[in-house]
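Teaching note: in complex prediction, the entire set of molecules is handled at once rather than each chain in isolation. The prompt given to students was simply: 'Predict the structure of this complex.' The entities are:
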Amino acid sequence: MENFENKPSETNGNANPPGEFSEAGTPAPASPPLRLKVVGVGSAATRTVARLCEAKIFAAEFIAVDTSAAELAALERFGVKTVLIGETITGGSGAGMDAMRGAAAAKASEETLRSMLAGTDLLILIASLGRGTGSGASVEVANLAREIGLVSVCFATTPFAWEGAKSTEQASLAIDALHANSNAFILIENNLIAQAVASGGSFSEGFKISDRWIESGVSSCCRMLLNTTGRMRVDLAAFRNLFPAVGTRTLFSVGFGSGGNAQEDALTELFRCPLLKTRTSVAGTAETLAIHIETGVEPQLAFVSETAQRVKNRFGGDLRTLPSYAVNPALGDRLEICVFGAAGIREASRVVRKKPKKEASDAMPGGVLVLNSDDADGNDFDREEPGLGLDDRRGGFADTRSRLFEGKDLDTPTYIRKQINLDKTLAKKKKEFGSLRKS
Amino acid sequence: MAQDNILAVIDIGSAETKVLIVDLEPQLQVIGAFCAKTEGMRKGEIVNLGALKESVHSAIRQAEKMAGAARRVRGACLAVSGALVGGFSVTGLTSVKSGCVRAEDKEAARDDAFSACIHRVPENRHIVQHLLRRYLLDRREREEPLGLSGKELTYDLWVIDADDTYLTELYQIPNRYGMAVRGLFPASLASAEAIRTFAQIMDDNRLVIDIGAGTSDFVLFRDGAVVCTGVIPVGGEHITNDMSLGLQISKEDAERLKIKYGNAYAREGDNVFAEIDLDSFDGELKGFSKHVSRYKMELITEVRLRELFTLISKKINVESAFSGTVFLTGGTAQMEGIGKLASSIFGNAEVRIGEPSLSFARAYAEPKYSTVVGLAKLYRDSQAKSAERDVKVGWFRRLFREIF
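The expected output is the structure of the full assembly:
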């Protein structure tokens, strides 16, 4: 997992193909091929969005949503569009750790949020859960997006175990709500960071890693869709087909490799990505799969097909597989593989429950991706109970409902919650007893 | 042929369902038994009732076959466990009017406790069992207050309750097989009963922990009376899951690794360098890691079990400081080094691994059978007690009739 370290965040900055710069430069209304919106809700998420915006990796609109005016004012210099919500409720001073207040704030500013989401093809929602705005308002934003009929990809970070039972509980509730309302939901557990930080890593380094996970996720996702250099590209319709239903389990993993052994390294990292082990992740194989391979030099045919085959062997994708590759000279000898997928679609389709659909299509402003009604009826459904239709032997406790026991999620391994770094401890002990052995 | 004395004792665990067909008369005797994998249950909670019913029914069928096809069993006895089971204490109070405790005073205190406990149980929960913890006479503990003098008698009660829907679903399983539920006991009590050896005196202070696959049930006894019971939703399956996450291996490999090499203590010294070759197991090679560090594996197990024992020790220390013997039972109790670890957490207490030691079930002397064997014993004892009470009532009635 230390391999995450290999990828300096600047890579993203250099990763701009010249063609995309011009897109970034043009203002949004001049009909770009794809209207992406990256929305951060909650203070930590808004900072992440600001960083992404500053890096200018791809052409998207970056929006920071928060209840705290001071927090937003600090972000303006990054060029992020800021949206202050719930002024009438919080007076612009934050939601005060209370998810109910966060939700109320979002409800009060529903019109603002609605117009913010209008004219979007793909919504990438970043939520930092645990505190008021992140846990409360993000759920409302996801609800709105679903109501409008947007394709949404949601990244959510959870609080550390020591942030208290209330934070954990609020986050847990928000996870369930977001998961049920997003097409793709990717959970980034802060407790996992300790596993990824190399020995001697500082606290802020831990946050950098969490950021990097989101960053690589958002950027891979966008680059896959805005892929101008690659031969095989994934368009939005295809991407939407990957996640036909909301509330399914999402597979997401990234792997990086460099040098002579790049392929092997990248695949190993891809298969071991800690994000595969979260509560909402696909535990076994996925039904639909998108594989994005990005290399510095033109790859050989055999290389691409072998890599794709190995990824498929591990992650499945027997219902639908979308390959995509791009050549990005800035990567040099590095290789980046990113996998998106969904599982539980078949199970979900068995419990199709028609929802009284809101007639939103008329009210929608032009340019919004409108799902045609058959499509929506067939694909837009709730899953009855999370996990009930899934096979029990899928592994992990991913398929059971988490029940907090005295504010602790006991299904998560203790070493993760207590943030014991296994590799570090082992290395330390080895050193200790290695010297003993010699003497 | 009346089959009232034949009973199916069923322990539905998260991993395995254990069924014993027992004959209660003239003495407790096992006539059929079967143990099968449970489907549809995780962490002691029912996740798929249909699959669960099917798997339990097939286990009962096999056990019946073993007992002889003619013996169709009509009654069942079940164990309750899981996160949906809870416990709390209530007290009943009465003032002793005559200055000397009489039977009426005892009854009044008991009734007061029961009415208090009915108010304490929320609407969606059901009382499974209540156990007398102790009598207090003027705040001093008395084993039997009858005839002692004092002013105020307190009846201290421990109540075990469970979620309504869980119980309904649990009852459905034997009901759909044509069996009536005749007994329902907390799994922790059953395990404790099974491992209570003959030589062990009743008034022992002991803590019994049954670590199953999905849950750990515990019960604390002081001077022979139950002080508290509880369930922690952590079991052997969690260790497997932790290993598979921490060592990046498949769940199957982790399970085999745990059974073959599992150790509750992260041993230091040369062990730090030891590696286990997963290829030495049969089966395909999974993922990319072939060798796993033994120390890492043990460390994962140790932190998990340490946390489990700490949670239990916190729970029991709310009631009273613990000193006495710790008994471990259930499937995970077979793990090496677990006794040493438990001892270090429970104040260097003596730790023993308990196996069911009742003479009628000699063939099932394995920790994982503790609950089911104890259930049979508990049911039989409760039957005997109620029979005794019947006799008493009969005698009273007769006296009553003679007088008037």
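Point out the following to students. The domain at 245-344 of chain A is CATH 3.30.1330.20 (60s Ribosomal Protein L30; Chain: A;). Chain A has 18 helices and twelve strands.
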